[in-house]
Known about the structure:
Elements: H1 39-43, H2 46-51, H3 72-77, E1 86-87, E2 94-99, E3 109-117, E4 124-127, E5 142-145, E6 157-166, H4 169-173, E7 184-188, H5 196-200, E8 204-205, E9 213-220, E10 229-239, E11 248-253, E12 265-269, E13 274-279, E14 292-296, H6 300-309
Amino acid sequence: MRHVGRPALLVSGALFLLLPLTSAHAAPPAPSAAPSSGSTDTYWTAERMRAAKAVKAGPVDSADGTDGTDGTDQAKRTTAAAAPSKPSTGLPIVGTFFWSDGKGGKGAGHFCGGTVVNSPGRNLVMSAGHCFDGKTARPNLAFVPQYDDGKKPYGSYAVKPGGIFVDQRYPARGRDAAAGLDFNFIQLEPRDGKNVQDAVGGADLLVDAGYEHDPVRLVGYPANQPHPLECTDRTERFDSSSPGIPGSFLRIECDAYSGGSSGGPFLVKRVSGWGIVGVIGGWKTGGDTDDVSYSPYFGKDVQALYDKATDGREPVTSRDVLDTAGTWRHAGTLAAEILRRR
């Protein structure tokens, strides 16, 4: 798996009204070097971000990573070579999350990846449901687009109170039985009066786009690396044979996506920008080896949750046509105590 323990954070509050729809694909401006007036931006200095650590191995993970299954699928996969991954400077629309314990940076952590998705409010990030399914609030929770070894070229964006949207069947049924619901949407506060999508752009949320895509760009933030990790390969359909983990998932073979990578996007190229067809999660919260990753399928349940997160409005997508194309112990790192909406 690729989550970290049982971290999580509960944010209370009602839904918020969103801004009117504007152009979905405005080119992001160059990052500003000017400091932000936002409190999380001031708090998350390069030193604090570099010092933040993800918590490894939690109570839902066994020490050997077997988590009670027979290992048949893992044995099948070891004969195939995974596509190589490499450190990169990342993408503006993809980032990671930081939290602190409110004690001057001690106990601070970073966990999971997230992707800005095009939305009417222009303030929405998508990640994995198991990244935000807990009960203890953490201060200074923020999303940092294109984070890279202490650098935050677009600043940090605070998570909006009451702005975490998780399908309530996921925590109710548990991460295995509800693996197909392992996704969420997170509303962010503006930074210096500007929403995150206005600053970095966004990916189109692609619903019912199928399981097979080629090529797919996988981006993650493993806890054991200072830089984002990227890999390009194809996805295929994986039908789970584990009785306790029902459903069908997207599967991709990319090496070295270790703990902390959860929530990272499966991206496909659009005529204009990117589309998102998956997030690292789902089957065994992303997989049981570092070299094979999974995603829940984006169908009607993703659409319904997106509608809730955007006050019932339809997804914002570009006018082009979808490209036709065809772990682990991810469970090692979620160092954050994360949230779900009451």
